[in-house]
Amino acid sequence: MAKIDPHIQGLLDAMAESGFALPDPMTPESLRAILDNPIPGPPVEIAEQRDITIGSEAGELSGRLYRSGSNETLPVILFFHGGGWVHGTLETHDRLCAMLAVQGCCAVISVDYRLAPEHPFPAALDDAMMSLRWIKDNQAALGIDASRIALSGDSSGANIAAALAQAAAGDPDICHQLLFYPALDGRCETPSYKLDHAGFLSAAQMRWYWEQYAPGDLRSDPRASLALSKIDARLTPATLITAGHDPLRDDGTAYAERLEAAGVSAVLHDFPGAIHGFASLFGIVPLADEAIDCAGRALREAFGQ
Fold it and tell me: Percentage of the chain surpassing pLDDT 90?
């Protein structure tokens, strides 16, 4: 296994010296108190950014709209934040969403979906499906072109994006999946789970997240654990970004292989020296800037730009 990138290792060392540690035992409340604080980084210049309400009186979610241009109709990314389905907010992924809008020359709608364990599977997927319908119904007010939609997320959010892509397979309006280190296999038994990862995410922590989101038999539902799903050949092309020092690395690698075997275009960008969550370190870590560049190129190509 490759060594951790020195820039990332420096950040990990600084965190350790500061006394940072995950709570033991882990609870949703204790993790939210620590991890719902955004990673500081250089601000992203964006033409427009505003909070929105997604849905109707029957079920409303908070969201945030980012636009890379003010006076044009833009293709759009529907984005779902990571956090093990338990934590994560619009704020924790604010910089990443703004940068994806800039890099993709598009709009981004970030969805504050319901979290586990208060709202276990399939609540998050239900929220994602509702959000997709909503942006199509409200595209004029949002200034977006809902015939060019990319689905994206990181970690657990990438799980939601991939599950939504499967549920909407054959929808001509969806043109791409952009999945950052997706959590796709609830069995948690791939070889990368057996390695000692010194990054932001341990195998034990990931297993705990799965138990919050899809406890018991729910974990074998192929809409939750997409490693168990049958790949629909009508799926939209995918770009996957994985990290070498991440228990989820094999989830992304295996999914890319399965997509290709089913005739679905899948491009995998693996960063052996990276850790889980590293793409959010853009502007701080050069390896993260490379990942964002890969994502931007994929988005622009998918949007026909």
Answer: 90
